[in-house]
Specification:
The complex is a heterodimer of chains A (273) and B (287).
Chain A (H helix, E strand, L loop, with lengths): L1 H28 L2 H4 L14 H9 L2 H32 L6 H13 L3 H14 L6 H25 L3 H9 L4 H12 L1 H17 L2 H6 L8 H10 L5 H21 L4 H6 L6
Helix pairs in contact in A: 1-13, 3-13, 4-7, 4-10, 5-7, 7-10, 8-9, 10-13, 12-13
Chain B lengths: L14 H26 L10 H8 L1 H34 L4 H13 L2 H12 L5 H8 L16 H27 L3 H8 L4 H29 L3 H6 L11 H10 L4 H28 L1
Classes of the chains: A mainly alpha (273), B mainly alpha (287).
């Protein structure tokens, strides 16, 4: 009896967690008449894919989607290229006194700045540099945003690899960089992949920077595109929901793939900016 | 940490590895901060002024936004902790299908926040939304349930969305914490005849304390800067009922183009965040 109650409670929680997402999905698949029907049609409605077509083929969501993909890929790559060597440097080299600790803490503290605090000067700086409304400008900002996270995640993974392995390789004539690339990185590959996934998700989900730094159709990201449809006078529920469903699918897939590292990543501020 | 003497004048050999990242962070995090200070203490002619800071004290909207941010943070934090803890204990006690429940419960926090907020707009809509529609269908009178469009219910509605979205986060961290604590003390207490509540209060809770603190600090830091959900759900309205500090800074800077005042307000937010992040750093070092 007690067990039964427990499962019932767990199912209730699950239902609450999933129902809003399911509702979004149904709205994206319903004809307009059914979207506003009373009673609400949770099941058994006529399925149509017209909103997906309207949003992505006819509308501008295709462009936003491409922008989001490019942006996530570019900024993740840049953050890894800068962050992995930094993490390695902090994990492996001799540092005087508390340097390694202090530098690490300072790097992490930049991640804790609320975005709204740096957004005003960043906006003015990018305007000066003529990088407003450009994917490059936003990619640079996202790189800086993800960088502390990469350093901390990767430093943890490097710490788990015994030093002796590289030292042996270096005795055999490998350089430092060679040892990192050919010996250590292959050993931390799952960690590296998880780190990359979290960076991709952060860049993909991010809203505030994108809202302020890209205001033209050609540079808009998926979240900003979706938001711009909400705040207009007439809400196109179908197209907006279709775009929402498309925006959430990659995140769910990626996050599930990196589930093993989710707790560690979240402790360092992954997923949400 | 081992401390080694390095001959004076020698550059630590790791520095070239760390330098590029530090330069980027200096340019894109620290420099903007300094720039922000400058913007906040100069007026239109470039002269020094503290007007942006004195204005904070008699700005009614800023006062309301601060108060609402505090209420929202405390309320959401409290509810998320209680629910997250209950869920973690509940799922932990199940014999089967734990992975299924866990995966499903995590969905809300993985969504792009904008998508989550959009879903809730569709649900909250007083006329066509799924919530009122379903309640009416169940026989309830929903005329008074205005959710995000009601002056009195808007803030609560926003809090509920945050609870829905981020309880999974607290649940996940606590759940991982529960799995990591040793089982012997709990077994020993049970053998000694302690009840479930006593075991939870006197054994589980103290052992979980670091994890609980971590979860609460991370949530608090996110809550004081809340923006995305409110921007989509209410834009701070009706009136200023759901205005928060982040939202007000956004409007001051990018609707009213008053960058100086926006920068001044952002320092208040920064101070609050620093308070939390200090605690967080200490916690991480202790690990």
């Amino acid at each position: 009896m007690k067990t039964l109650l427990r499962y019932a409670a767990a199912c209730g929680g699950l239902l609450i967690a999933v129902a809003p997402v399911y509702w979004l999905l149904t709205i994206s698949l319903k004809r307009e008449v059914d979207q506003f029907a009373y009673p609400p049609q949770w099941f058994g409605f006529v399925v149509t894919l017209q909103h997906y077509g309207n949003a992505f083929r006819g509308g501008s969501f295709g462009q936003y989607f491409t922008n989001s993909v490019l942006l996530a890929a570019l900024s993740t790559l840049a953050a890894l290229l800068l962050g992995v060597p930094a993490a390695y440097g902090l994990a492996r080299f001799e540092w005087p006194g508390h340097w390694s600790e202090n530098i690490g803490n300072w790097i992490l503290s930049t991640r804790m700045l609320p975005p709204i605090v740096t957004i005003v000067p960043l906006f003015l700086m990018l305007r000066e540099a003529r990088l407003l409304n450009s994917l490059l400008g936003l990619a640079i900002v996202y790189t800086a945003f993800n960088l502390p996270f990469v350093v901390w995640m990767m430093r943890g993974f490097f710490d788990e690899v015994p030093r002796e392995i590289e030292e042996a390789a270096m005795l055999d004539g490998e350089t430092r960089a060679g040892a990192l690339l050919r010996i250590v990185l292959p050993l931390v590959k799952p960690g590296l992949a998880a780190t990359a996934v979290f960076c991709l998700v952060v860049a993909w989900n991010e809203f505030l920077f994108a809202l302020i730094l890209t205001q033209t159709e050609s540079a808009m990201t998926l979240p900003v595109g979706i938001a711009s449809r909400v705040t207009q006078y007439e809400i196109r529920w179908g197209e907006m929901s279709a775009a929402g469903v498309v925006a959430m699918l990659p995140v769910l897939v990626f996050a599930t793939a990196a589930q093993k590292y989710l707790v560690r990543g979240l402790s360092l501020g992954a997923v949400k900016g | 940490m081992r401390s080694r003497r390095i001959p004076a004048g020698r550059i630590p050999s790791g520095l070239p590895w760390v330098m590029p990242a530090m330069v980027v962070l200096l340019a894109l995090s620290i420099y903007p901060m300094i720039y922000s200070v400058k913007v906040s203490i100069t007026d239109a002619t470039g002269a020094f002024t503290l007007a942006n800071f004195t204005r904070l004290f008699h700005d009614r909207v800023f006062g309301a936004a601060t108060l609402q941010t505090i209420v929202l943070t405390i309320a959401a934090l409290g509810i998320e902790f209680v629910l997250g803890m209950a869920l973690a204990l509940l799922i932990d006690s199940l014999a089967r299908a734990r992975a299924v429940f866990r995966a499903g419960l995590l969905v809300p926090m993985l969504l792009p926040p904008v998508v989550a907020a959009v879903a809730w707009r569709l649900i909250y809509n007083p006329q066509f939304g799924a919530l009122n529609g379903t309640l009416r269908w169940l026989g309830l009178n929903t005329a008074a349930l205005t959710w995000t469009s009601g002056e009195n219910s808007a803030l609560l509605s926003v809090i509920l969305v945050d609870v829905w979205e981020w309880t999974p986060f607290v649940f996940l961290l606590l759940s991982a914490g529960l799995q990591a604590i040793p089982t012997e003390p709990i077994e020993a207490a049970r053998i000694d005849g302690a009840g479930a509540w006593r075991i939870f209060r006197d054994v589980t809770l103290p052992l979980l304390k670091p994890t609980i603190l971590l979860a609460l600090l991370l949530r608090a830091m996110d809550l004081v800067r809340i923006f995305d959900q409110i921007f989509i759900l209410t834009q701070g309205g009706p009136g200023t009922a759901t205005e928060t500090v982040s939202l007000y800074i956004y409007r001051t800077a990018f609707r009213f183009s008053n960058f100086g005042y926006a920068a001044a307000m952002s320092f208040v937010l920064l101070a609050a965040t620093m308070m939390f992040s200090r605690g967080l750093m200490r916690l991480m070092r202790a690990r």
